[in-house]
Queue: 2 jobs
Job 1
Amino acid sequence: MALRPYIVGNWKMNGTRAMLAEARSIDRGAARHPGVQVGIAPPFTLVHTMAEAAEAIGVGGQDCHAKASGAFTGDVAAAMLADAGAGFVIVGHSERRAMHGEADADVRAKAEAALAAGLGVIVCVGETEAQRDAGQAEAVVTGQVAGSLPQGDVAAAQLTVAYEPVWAIGTGRVPSVDDVSAMHRAIRAKLVELLGEGGADVRILYGGSVNAGNAAELLAAEDVGGALVGGASLTAESFLTIVAAAAIDGE
Ligand code: 13P
């Protein structure tokens, strides 16, 4: 695949300072695979310390607010993440969509705020099991892409889309490689429709129960440009196996 593979660990609400040693191991291991872009999105509390120590990996946030500042108790602005050393932020994760009521328009506003702050942005999309069973998966996901992507001129290198079927997250269930390829093709077509030629250069990550055992097969699927990894990103051992799988695929 022509685009540099991108492997991102989403630590979700896991990790205290004791986990920084694991991040250092991941950083050292990632340095052995310069052909792969590697990132970790730890909880906000670890962003600054992790970013200070990181040499080979990027460090990111798991969410940001759409506004630059103000009376938004508990929220963090994109510019604050950048100030703490983050290089990217994940927006529109299905856990935020489901538990915090974020709609496509909210996700778009956050993505635009991230880009304005100079961060790369990973926009997450994905269907529920009921939507897939009803044959609506592609329509739902391409609709989310159309509604959630930042508007205006967007450099492809700053934008990543992560396809994460909700039913595959944390369940150990993954779609077939054919289903992943079909969805990534549909997302690619929508990206080109929305962004023109630049849409061909946006990486589309797969996420949902990626682990050391299934990563190589999923990463080899058509138009899979990397992975967004939850549970298996919490140890250097499993996460670096996934990074190495991307290196093989990318060479
Ligand atoms: P798991 O890899 O734990 O299924 O989580 C995927 C995910 O939600 C990453 O953002």
Note: The longest helix spans residues 177-195.
Job 2
Amino acid sequence: MIAVFDSGIGGLSVWRELYKLMPEQDYLYLSDSANCPYGTKPVDFIISRAETITDFFISKGAEVIVIACNTATAAAVEHLRAKYSIPFVGMEPAIKPAAIASKSGVVGVLATANTFKGSLYNTTLEKFASNIKVIERVGEGLVECVESGKFEGDEVETLLHRYIDDMKSECADAIVLGCTHYPFLESAISRIAGEGVTIFNPAPAVAMQTKRVIESIETRKESNSKYSFYSTGDTKIMRSILLQIDPKISDNSIQTVEL
Ligand code: DGL
């Protein structure tokens, strides 16, 4: 059973890739909507939420945990790996493929404040982006738009122009989505970034990595896969996203939980 969590529904952009790649697996998803966003919260608070969620997942029989949140990965993955024996797969900022693909040598990165502060992001930058220019923008307000189901419209456009226009004027030809909520804004991001700008979403690579982890531990196969989706807050937008991913997902698999 693969358990997936995020501060909110953003991690469904990762779950979507996991489900595409491994539809036969059992899944648990937890949206910590009552505490969203994590992007500006103290690191200790995020670590404590990650522990509570991990304990919940282990009590439900999880075998692998995917931290479908760049912010929680940055804050807590090392701590979690040291404390628990269950394997964790975290988000990797897609700096390397963006740096390789960029012809202009300028890459834009959109992420939360905590992700930019974390050592994971900064080490990745040192390793793969020493020869390119990186324009970092905190996507303030974007997580809230996604959480309220606004993937398009004036508010989204105004915010995106605020972050992407600078990247464009500096000739960035690659934009890294450094927060799992942002793939839900990908159409608007692509439109505003314009032609010739490639958007990099690490979710497919994270799904591949999870598959490798699963293959290394898997001892049994069940014939019917099962899904459960939990939220510590409202489930309305979660429901509508899940129905877009697969209309067969039943309402009964979505519930609220107090953690
Ligand atoms: N989806 C998250 C991420 O990937 C967290 C956003 C937030 O809660 O601020 O960073």
Note: The beta strands are 2-6, 27-31, 64-67, 88-89, 106-111, 133-138, 174-178, 198-200, 227-231, 254-256.
